[in-house]
């Protein structure tokens, strides 16, 4: 039977909901305070939680957050509805937000729906879903270690310093820390320090008062104020000016800041997660990062592995990206064995970002339901040419047309006459390659059978 947990400090409301739950086929647990609700959650994770927010012993949102984390469907029932609570609830993944007095028919329909979905086979997993944390996917030991570190640091208030190459997913780590923390229902604000003009970054970080400078016709709240109660992610922290680093250090130490144009301090409760794509120790030596700020930020350092050190995670991620494209496009494309091997062989200097773009490009360019050589980006094509195509010696004074012909035919030969792969390595469309080969054949040059690979003739 499906299991229902009811959190409400009103005895009459609880009794009514208990009776309704049993009518709909649920076993029912009830709690009048946050502590009892959390105990019930530990004893048996419910299929559905009906929770009031204003109950003794803490914030009802804490119960909703914990219930959502174990996969329960959560519905808030409150007599004190307001927009702020509704927004927090939606961020937690709450499925519905009901204000008392509740429509019993609506609640009965909701309970029946949840009970009806229990016991059905789960939705088939897209490739990669079996190993993930938040929006990060990967089953390698390197990523499992990252997940363990996030799990340990998230519940605390520690500042975290994430170090990793571009494209490894530093912002996803920050989001996972935020969502797994007690601040999960509060704002998450991401800032790329390198993307803001140096003359504007202090204004954007701390805000300004009306009239503080020409054109400041209204008060402006900065990132710290907007992230109050939540998490502020400062990406590329080494791009921040030294003067602003001093002010940031003070905010981290005192929890107070000043808007531009005033001497009045404002208190803020913000957890900072900082990140950089370079060695922070090297940045300190080069004068890009203040040493005192570095040690204040690196209370909990977390290093993200590059994709080339994650083994078959590259295959898992590529399949996941392709699954997303197939779902959006109503297709059923797949990678060929040659493409899988090419995925494993490449170093992926652009990491997950480069991989995602490569899969998208391959999907768009694919002419059938199999993604083959079109997957490879330019750097990868160079690797393949070195391994498969060898070299072509050109004479000084040779025409470009002649050089093109020799390169095309040599590449075609090294690809075993597979024109689709040849076109991908040369960086041209299959149609363009077919037209060139047709012209060479008409001119009397020896060209493999053009009719043996009709895919190149398709537009």
TrEMBL record:
Domain Response regulatory per the UniProt entry, residue ranges: 3-115
Keyword Endoplasmic reticulum applies: no
Domain of life: Bacteria
Domain Sigma-54 factor interaction: residue ranges: 136-364
Key words, A-Z: ATP-binding, DNA-binding, Nucleotide-binding, Phosphoprotein, Transcription, Transcription regulation
Cleaved signal peptide residues: none
InterPro entries for the chain: AAA+_ATPase, AAA_lid_NorR, CheY-like_superfamily, Homeodomain-like_sf, HTH_Fis, P-loop_NTPase, Sig_transdc_resp-reg_receiver, Sigma_54_int
Residues with 4-aspartylphosphate modification: 52
CDD domains assigned: AAA (cd00009)
Keyword ATP-binding part of the UniProt annotation: yes
Gene3D superfamilies linked: 1.10.8.60, 3.40.50.2300, Homeodomain-like, P-loop containing nucleotide triphosphate hydrolases
GO MF entry, a single one: sequence-specific DNA binding
Gene Ontology BP term (one): phosphorelay signal transduction system
Protein name from the UniProt record: DNA-binding NtrC family response regulator
Organism of this sequence: Castellaniella defragrans
Lineage: Bacteria, Pseudomonadati, Pseudomonadota, Betaproteobacteria, Burkholderiales
